[in-house]
Design goal:
The structure holds two protein chains of two kinds. By secondary structure, chain A is mainly β. Chain A is built from no helices and eleven strands. In chain A, strand 4 and strand 5 form a beta hairpin. Chain B is mostly beta strands. Classes of the chains: A mainly beta, B mainly beta. Chain A binds chain B through residues 4, 33, 35, 40-45, 48, 55-56, 58, 90, 92, 99-102, 104-109, and chain B through 4, 32, 34, 36, 42-46, 49, 51, 90, 92, 94, 96-105.
Chain lengths: 115, 112
């Protein structure tokens, strides 16, 4: 069974640019959540996707957007990057019929650096 | 609104000594509680969870946590730590909606 995978592992972008991060959910999981973990902080919920639709959003501006595809993989897009967007971005997937938060499995993350 | 407070940002402890990582939460509704562990340069791994039933929950590697509703706490304990337990530990809460609320983490240092 393959776990949650994320790509790329590391990424360096310039302020004002746009970035797309990718996540493949664990086999059998239909819900994907994205979190931002700044250095020295706990993860902060960005949003969740269930059956290709947004299913809840945290306190992040609209320049953070996402997609979920029919195979349940997902993308996180961030426009107009700011220095404070530098963080580890974590994707988590949840199994079928339990799209509540209590069964989330995390990927290794993508470390984004904005210069 | 829910929140999680981890009272210690760092906990140094000698190898084979006991350890307790403290966690308090606030919520106006029934909650689910979690401890996640993050090893250096890795993602989060679920260590243990409380959903319902017995208030004492255990992990496969010797950690345990007790849900205390009156004190709104979910402290993590291990009777004897090992160097391999060096990691960041996150307490988290959810009310079975769309998100998990994490604490700021406690870094466990195992001293030689």
């Amino acid at each position: 069974e393959t776990g949650v995978t994320q790509s790329p592992t590391h990424l360096i972008k310039t302020r004002g640019q746009q970035v797309t991060l990718r996540c493949s959910s664990q086999s059998g999981h239909n819900t994907v959540s994205w979190y931002q973990q700044a250095l020295g902080q706990g993860p902060q919920f960005i949003f969740q996707y269930y059956r290709e639709e947004e299913n809840g959003r945290g306190n992040f501006p609209p320049r953070f957007s996402g997609l979920q595809f029919p195979n349940y993989s997902s993308e996180l897009n961030v426009n107009a990057l700011e220095l404070d967007d530098s963080a580890l971005y974590l994707c988590a997937s949840s199994p079928l019929n339990t799209h509540g938060a209590y069964e989330q499995y995390f990927g290794p993350g993508t470390r984004l650096t904005v210069t | 609104a829910q929140s999680v407070t981890q009272l210690d940002s760092q906990v140094p402890v000698f190898g084979e000594a006991p350890v307790e990582l403290r966690c308090n939460y606030s919520s106006s509704v029934s909650v689910y509680l979690f401890w996640y562990v993050q090893y250096p340069n890795q993602g989060l791994q679920l260590l243990l969870k409380y959903l319902s039933g017995s208030t004492l929950v255990e992990s496969i590697n010797g950690f345990e946590a007790e849900f205390n509703k009156s004190q709104t706490s979910f402290h993590l304990r291990k009777p004897s730590v090992h160097i391999s337990d060096t990691a960041e530990y996150f307490c988290a809460v959810s009310n079975r909606d769309d998100k998990i609320i994490f604490g700021k983490g406690t870094r466990l240092h195992i001293l030689p």
